[in-house]
Write a structure and sequence with these properties.
The chain is an alpha/beta fold. It has a single domain, classed as Carbon-nitrogen hydrolase (Nitrilase/N-carbamoyl-D-aminoacid amidohydrolase, 4-Layer Sandwich). The chain is built from six helices and 15 strands. A six-stranded mixed sheet has the order 5-4-3-2-1-15. Helix 3 runs parallel beside helix 4. The chain is globular and about 50 Å long. The termini are far apart.
Length: 296
């Protein structure tokens, strides 16, 4: 745990290109920026090494995957060690031939792997064909112990599900963290875009309130073309944010590339949970049916 109750969080919201080496170099510079401003914990966006390749189903894209540990954990581990930070990365994991995961990896201050989380909920929608690429996670909802606190890390589509946030909280997470890649299909109306973006923020602020925990959501930004030409591509909406344990917004980015520093008071969760003891009052003896697909 850091000294005192305040944790300095750095977030990096950036555009990506087809040049993975250039993306990593850009990430390294942005991480150095927030670390130089005092960040103890730095969170990156989902699948930050490349373009968001899931807009199409293309077996060649599996060449982007790598083992964990592997080249990226070594690369970002050196960065974490250089700056003395805990770093949350998001990687395309090659577990075995034909077996791949969307995996968040947490690197400790010494560059070692503190833990990893494999994305549990996998979408399959136009321009988000993730089921073609990713096997659902099998590590459960287990927080990762680090020198700056216990991190409840999930990935993107997981952020819509209150069950994952709750299970992380019940296992002792002090922060809920969501690397993300979400945006608009370019033909959506401005009104529909606003509804989608507001729903995304609202549901995660709800996780903060329901569990009395801060939430960190870091999204990518910029336009990425659909290689197939079947859609107009995705405008990733950015709007990365940090919410406190009552859902209060501590920081919210716009759509531009952003490096930000946010102060998070970890002690506030203790106080909020005393005022609003949701965990105390849960009627767990009646929740068995939550494990059913539907109450027919």
């Amino acid at each position: 745990m850091p000294q005192g109750s305040t944790l300095t969080v750095g977030i990096v919201q950036q555009t990506c290109s087809a040049d993975t080496a250039a993306n990593r170099e850009k990430l390294a510079a942005n991480i150095a920026d927030v670390a130089g401003r005092g960040a103890q914990l730095v969170v990156l966006q989902e699948l930050h090494n490349s373009l968001y390749f899931c807009q199409t189903e293309n077996t060649d894209c599996f060449d982007l995957a790598e083992p964990v540990p592997g080249p990226s954990t070594e690369y970002f581990g050196r960065i974490a060690r250089k700056h003395g930070i805990v770093l949350v990365c998001s990687l395309f994991e090659r577990r075995a031939p034909g077996l791949y995961h969307n995996t968040a990896v947490v690197l400790e201050k010494d560059g070692s792997i503190a833990g990893k989380y494999r994305k549990m909920h996998i979408p399959d929608d136009p321009a988000y064909y993730e089921k073609f690429y990713f096997t659902p996670g099998d590590l459960g909802f287990q927080p990762i112990q680090t020198s700056v606190g216990t991190l409840g890390v999930q990935v993107c589509w997981d952020q819509w599900y209150p069950e994952g946030a709750r299970l992380m909280a019940l296992a002792g997470a002090q922060l809920l963290i969501y690397p993300t890649a979400i945006g608009y299909e370019s033909s959506d109306t401005a009104e529909e875009q606003a509804r989608q973006r507001d729903a995304w923020v609202t549901v995660q602020r709800g996780h903060a309130v329901a569990n009395g925990l801060p939430v960190i959501a870091v999204n990518r930004t910029g336009h990425e073309d659909d290689p197939s030409g079947q859609t107009r591509g995705i405008d990733f909406w950015g709007n990365s944010f940090v919410a406190g344990p009552q859902g209060e917004l501590l920081f919210c980015a716009g759509t531009e590339e952003t490096n930000a520093i946010v102060q998070v008071d970890l002690q506030r969760s203790e106080n909020v949970r005393r005022w609003w003891p949701f965990l105390r009052d849960r009627r767990i003896e009646y929740f068995d049916e939550l494990a059913r697909r539907f109450r027919d």
